[in-house]
Amino acid sequence: MSKDNFLGNESGIHGQYKTWFLDYASYVILERAVPAIEDGLKPVQRRILHAMKEMDDGRFNKVANIIGQSMQYHPHGDASIGDALVNMGQKDLLIETQGNWGDVRTGDDAAASRYIEARLSKFALEVAFNAKTTEWQLSYDGRKNEPVTLPMKFPLLLAQGAEGIAVGLSTKILPHNFCEIIEAAIKHLRGKKFELFPDFQTGGMIDVTHYNEGKRGGKVKVRAHIEELDKKTLVIRDVPYGVTTAQLMDSIVKANDQGKIKIKKVTDNTAANVEVLVDLAPGISTDITIDALYAFTDCEVSISPNACVIAEQKPRFITVHDLLRSSAELTKDLLKKELEIKLAELQDKWHYTSLEKIFFEEKIYKELEKKHETWEKVLMAIDKAFGPFKKQLKKEISKEDIVKLTEKPVRRIYKLDIDELNAQIGNIDKEIKQVKYDLENLVDFAVAYYDNLLKKYGKGRERKTEIKLFESIQAKQVAIANAKLYVNRSEGFIGTGLKKDEFVDDCSDLDDIIAFTKAGKMKVVKAADKVFIGKDILHVAVFKKNDERTTYNMIYADGKTGISYAKRFNVTSVTRDKEYDLTKGSDKSKVHYFSVNPNGEAEAVKIVLSPSSSARNKELEFYFEELEIKGRGSMGNQVTKYPVKSVKFKEAGRSTLSGRKLWFDNNFGRLNTEGKGSFLGMFDSEDRLLIIYSNGNYEISDTELSQRIDGEKVLLIEKFDPEKIITAVYLDKEKLQFNIKRFKIETTTLRNKFFFIKEGEGNQLQTVTTDETPVLVMQSGRGAQIRKAKIKVNKVVEVMGWKAVGAKLADYSKTVEMDWEKKKPEDNQQPELF
After folding, report:
1. Which residues are known to be catalytic?
2. pLDDT for position 396
3. What is the pLDDT of the chain when averaged over all its residues?
4. How are beta strands 799-800 and 737-743 bridged, if at all?
5. Which of 15, 524, 538, 643 sits at 20 to 30 Å (Cα–Cα) from 557?
6. 734-760: buried (b, 16+ CB within 10 Å) or exposed (e) per residue?
7. Which structural domain, as residue segments, surrounds residue 91?
8. How far is Cα 256 from Cα 278, in angstroms, rounded to an integer?
9. Three-state DSSP class for residue 11
């Protein structure tokens, strides 16, 4: 054959290239990587479960034996089967395990297959198998039958999750909570709306804001729980989904090596529970380090779900809600099939039992004693004898029925046996009636089925991953200063590599740097080794975006007119690397005086005019507090039209800014200045916060925005006034009584929690106020037995020390409700309680 003929032949190389890749892609998608929508299983998983069902005798089997049994159905050898089996076993749902099956938290591998054992769980036996409703196909070698799909009466794919990479597409379905899946299925069957969010064996926290029902393009953020063990140590209590403790520790060490965080060491103490200890370097904030761990390490990861399944022999991208609905409807259909099969079996049983009863009760069996010529005539005679009774039956009498009757022992003629047959028929009638009722009320039957699953298998499968909103962490704000910033003022260079020049400050490689020159130019640049700003640099600092407190005071001379102007301005946002002119824009303009004030301070300066000027008074004073703070582009106010020789600092001034407004967002446990959450008031730099927690601790804190506050436990947060009296009611669990106490804060240590109620297991703060004249409203009892009382606390409870136990208020009761009487509008307002 010629070359041209060979290439042109469809069965040649051209034909192979045309079809083989498509065949290969289809095979990988359908037979390897993507699960089926019907049972939520990939082919290898389905074959393993089928093999285990064949082996099932209630005892554990060696995994090596299970692999061998599965190889009769699966064409890809023991390695793929073993990996899939271990993966299913670690999910603790369909397979009960025995031995060392590895640990998804630490990444430890399972022991060899000859050492570990497995069997199907009771749950799997209940939901995944029914030979009567299974569709079968020949195995790859044609020797055995295997299921096309298992008759799965549960949304398995949502419970276990799935991940696979095929040719040209992939799937990533996150696992969801067992109990929530069942509850959602029940809601769907009842026609109600439902929500489903991922839940992981590894615990942690998850932000599902952008989950988007698991569709392509959605995203979830997953975090580990990090706690402050003490001021020098953090402890990580779990790992994000898909991250092992080894990977987590590697990411922390890497962040430390890159200078993003500063730690002394990280230690893995994981045993029954995850425990990774992070020892901090001296002087490092625990709150900022926690944020940095989320920003720079695998303590927080983003996961992009991509729900792809095989439906009708095609890959389909759907939502987890679609998966739930499909599975619930499939379960209902399978239950219907099972009921229909059961009804047919009961009707057959009723038919034959009725035949048996008539056969003996009406003595039709005596036809066997008569002398008929052939066996066929005996059967015909018996059939004829049934003639008068056929109306009692619900189906035709077959030859097989009569043959089966002739094989019955004659002892059935006794009355007791006939009574037993009557009882059996009655029971079968009841069963038939119930099955028909269930078929007519299929939704109720399916709901009852799911309810039963929840009762039998739901215990211990409660949600492990906490659903929570995550605040956005700005990497710049939490990066540790891992570099040093230098400046060469005369030549106009700044950078981290100018180590022979003037040191300015510590910074991080993520910071922006702001710089001002004597020519009145300003520029913000990225921290780098060496950057040119402009000659005669006046000021260099790390730039804080949206900083409305730092105020720049400046006096400059316009190069065109010689007139000097004064201005005050903030720099809240800029375009990086763009040069801004802070003067009127004329050439040869120059800055006479420049100061940076972190809290809007307005100093006084002494201006000395040129001796050759025509001004009579050659010295004058200027007070910056007379100027308003305007934008950086403002021209400023005229100071003098005469040439200026020098401007010198005279005396410090007060801040012209009002206090900073602060809010507390208890969703994130953060203070902020953006108006999110509850307004706390105006705060000056020396003001402090009082925070009281439900566990009986109080804390005095500064107003640093980077600190983390446990918002879920906060009962009261307000500006701290040491003269205010705190009134608190708490539960003494040991004595089963409520105690009340009034006290003043006597401690001064910042960011240190002090326990101020009686120590004891179960003791908990009920309510607290700093009102000057608190009135406690108590209600107890229910229905007609409700009793209310008002207590003017300051009249009956004296002020005591903060460590005092307090006085008994009332006996404990679950029906007791407490609240503070609301003040009238003209009265002083209470701080907001949480």
Report:
1. 115
2. 80
3. 88
4. parallel
5. 524
6. eeeebbbbbbebeeeeebeeeebbbee
7. 3-154+161-173
8. 11
9. coil
